[in-house]
Design brief:
The protein is of the alpha+beta class and about 130 residues long. The chain has one domain. The protein contains six helices and four strands. The protein has a two-stranded antiparallel ribbon. Strands 3-4 form a two-stranded antiparallel ribbon. Helix 2 packs across helix 3. The two termini are about 25 Å apart. The model has no long low-confidence stretch (mean pLDDT about 85).
Length: about 130
């Protein structure tokens, strides 16, 4: 596969992965492109949350919004909601990869990722049993 993790000059991490969307039973499913016919089940809620977090962080980094408060106002949501999602950009890259590949434990949820997330990537890996 062609997934790539790149450290940008501004200190952010760019994660690129080939994905495809598949509609099944009226629901959209996200799969890694190029996987065997029986792809792993992807936790769409986590994938969507991470994608949203990185998009919002990009809007802040590009200067389209000067603060989470301004972004929250534009989105018509509470600023604490925006900040909770923005914390997902601090996830260790191996955790993000596991989520997008369907290898993350199903017990992992947005709530668990939002609760006392350690800054250390090694500690995050231990916390979520991914060592």
């Amino acid at each position: 596969m062609n997934e790539r993790i790149e450290l940008l000059e501004n200190g952010n991490t760019l994660i690129t992965a080939p994905i495809k969307f598949h509609y099944e039973d009226g629901r959209k499913r996200i799969f890694f492109a190029g996987r065997p016919d029986d792809p792993p089940m992807i936790n769409e809620q986590l994938v969507t949350g991470i994608a949203r977090a990185y998009r919002w962080q990009e809007l802040l980094d590009n200067g389209e919004f000067d603060s989470p408060e301004a972004l929250a106002e534009a989105l018509n949501v509470n600023v604490s909601y925006v900040r909770r999602f923005l914390r997902l950009t601090l996830l260790a890259p191996p955790i993000v990869e596991a989520i997008f590949e369907g290898r993350a434990p199903w017990s992992l949820s947005l709530t668990k990722l939002d609760t006392n997330l350690p800054f250390s990537w090694k500690e995050q890996m231990k916390l979520f049993g991914m060592v």
